Amino acid sequence: MKTLLTSVLLTGHLALNAQFQEQDFDGTQSYPLPYMFDTTAGNIWQVGMPQKPLFNAARSAPNAIVTDTLAAYPPTNTSSFIVKSDLAGYWGWSVFFLRFYHAFDTDTLQEGGYVEVSWDNGASWTNIFSDWMMPLNIENYYADDWTPIIADTLSNGQIGYSGRSGSLTGGLRWVYSSFCWETIGYPLADSVFVRFSFFSDSIPEARDGWMIDNITVEAYIAHPVSAFTRMDDFIVVAPNPVQDQLNIVYDVDQDRTPVHLELIDPAGRAVRVLADGEFPPGDRHIQLDRRELPRPAGPLLLAGHIGGRSVAHRIILAPVSVVDH
Q1: Domain total for the chain?
Q2: Which residue among 155, 164, 234, 238 is least enclosed by CB atoms within 10 Å?
Q3: CA-to-CA dists, residue 50 to 88, 175, 262, angstroms
Q4: Quick check: 58 and 108 in contact, CB under 8 A?
């Protein structure tokens, strides 16, 4: 899946077919990606040298952005920082990436970090795993061996990251996350905001929280080829818009791979489960007649996961009257 939380400010370097900005929190990048803290009281995000039991080094020394560089995160806290991208003037750029490295140390399935996106200047926010405004592809891997990870649902209902990436005895493991918006065929908003938030519940935990480093935002005229994109075509949805039939082809590359795919309507309701179970390696094909899908024309979200690869594809249904003539 094309590779993922912070926004796209595309006013920097233009190099042939790519636009690039980076934030390493060390002040060394040539084309820095701006960020801003939420000014709400109690915000625990800090930029500095991490000095915690697990978070003991930035990915690129010396600094990272951390939920407090020294102390464990407090209970009953929600803290955020935001990256804004001004997209006006970049209508010809068809592929946008947000990529970053991060580590987390939280109570599994309870507390953790999540990312939201806003296409209306912060008036409303959508979890990036359920972004309706743009067709989004996501990948999450451990950076040292490409082992995929699956996002969790936190106790506040947000989809995000929880648990511990690494161990106190074995050391920190960085996770590579990539989010790709493909804008072909869809109008591009003037700007986009991406918000990174950390949430803790009311139970105190002596844990490190969330640490993020080396955030990059890139825009391409065509999809680039890189080490992390060699599994990009693991799922194909066609045709789109759907008129007569919907075909979904995906590949499973390991034995007993957990797969869950479902169609979600604009109200957030699951209208059909397409796959749910463990499957052997190989290509799999789902075919549905238009009459088997919801009758109203409009968008559906194909969502779920194939192993550690998240799925979020926007599907457009043609009116039934067009196909049932």
Answers
A1: 2
A2: 238
A3: 36, 17, 40
A4: no
Residue 56 lies in a domain: yes
Query: Is this prediction's pTM over 0.90?
Result: no
Residue 259: inside a domain: yes
pLDDT of residue 257: 85
Instruction: Answer yes or no: are the C-beta atoms of 2 and 99 closer than 8 Å.
Output: no
Question: Are 103 and 158 in contact, with CB atoms under 8 Å apart?
Answer: no
211 and 297, same domain (yes or no): no
Can you tell me the distance from the alpha carbon of 134 to that of 279, in angstroms, rounded to the nearest whole number? 29
Domain coverage including residue 118 = 13-220
Strands 18-23 and 152-153: unpaired
